């Protein structure tokens, strides 16, 4: 039989890969709690229309990257490429779009992208949505949280870029002016930018093409189209948080999703390589309305977990581990009873029961190769005397016989 491999860009994670995952996830949950944000879990699959209407059918994500298929009922469904659309769909469905909520989620997202370091087809995001609050305080709160995350996870060489896209009308006005400026340069554009010129001109500001970047130097600037209050918001955010993290106002920052208006931001670190953004987000005041809900101002962020974990220097505490070794002649049931009592007494220790039928000597040899600090040995002699041998695996000579009660007390203090 031929073997079946995993899908490209969808890696498996083993415990060595995962060693930094739970400390980072736990720290993020703590920060969300500190900001009084509540958890929400939505399905990883939704109707395709939800993403077409929210993320936008001019975006790369919906155009080229979405995993869509028809179910047995011939309805088009898609794996979620991002978390916000599902959250807003749920809020509208539960009729919560007229109240304020602060929500966070964590889970896998799916995009058919060209895999490379830091870019996968299944990846994980933690996201926060602050719903029902107009531009102003919620924007400050979210930027404050980003600074907390960068500092709590000890991210080095991080920079937070912020920009303001204006409201729906000024975004449209600016698009028009940009297209007018760019049309004479059409023959200098690559295929991608030409397509953007027709569908979503703002995204040309994102271009990686050096020639285009040169042309854009004299293009109309977004900050001339947005209001004074929008420019003031950017400068006061920068002023307020500049002692917590590096914040840069970047008028060329536009984000790949169509639904953004107002403040947009992206955190990146030079430690990441080519795919250097680890947090992205912004305000999306018109999304709820587009999805059939009431007007609901909103702002949110998404953290790329693979990327933030790869540059965070917080790691797991050293694992406490004991190997339990028993003779296999006739005492296995007792071994399982004692092991159960030990695990109940201290769940912070990992008790690795050797489940093989090999000799005690062979089991000890194996235990010595692990990172366990102790081996607990229950041989035939110990069973008849109701004792357990506690052997240090760090210091060869140390070996003590203990009663089961003494052993439990010892285990509690490991
Ligand atoms: P976005 O939803 O595109 O704003 O992305 C938010 C964050 O998710 C980015 O800053 C990345 O850290 C992460 N991210 C987006 N796409 C991928 C991907 N294909 N693989 C890994 N991380 C990703």
Polypeptide structure, described:
The chain has 414 residues and is α+β, with helices and mostly antiparallel strands. The strands form 3 sheets. It has an 8-stranded mixed sheet. It has a 5-stranded mixed sheet with strand order 13-12-14-15-16, sandwiched between helices. It has a 3-stranded antiparallel sheet with strand order 2-4-3. It has helices at 15-18, 21-34, 48-56, 60-65, 84-93, 137-152, 168-182, 191-199, 210-216, 228-241, 287-290, 305-311, 332-345, 360-368, 380-385, 404-412; strands at residues 38-39, 45-47, 68-70, 76-79, 101-110, 122-131, 158-164, 247-249, 261-269, 277-283, 298-304, 320-326, 349-353, 374-378, 387-392, 399-403. The mean pLDDT is 92. The two termini are 48 Å apart. Helix 2 packs antiparallel against helix 6 and helix 13 runs parallel beside helix 16. It has 16 helices and 16 strands. The site of adenosine monophosphate (AMP) has 17 residues, from strand 6, strand 10, strand 11 and helix 12. Residues 82, 111, 113, 118-120, 123, 125, 256, 277-280, 302, 304, 306-307 line the site of adenosine monophosphate (AMP).
Mean pLDDT: 92
Low-confidence stretches: none
Counted by DSSP, the helix tally is 16
Strand order of the largest sheet: 1-5-6-11-10-9-7-8
Q: Taking Cα atoms only, what radius of gyration do you get, to the nearest Å?
A: 28 Å
- Largest pleated sheet: 8 strands, mixed
Tell me, briefly, the overall form: elongated
Strand content range: 15-25%
What is the strand tally? 16
Hetero groups = adenosine monophosphate
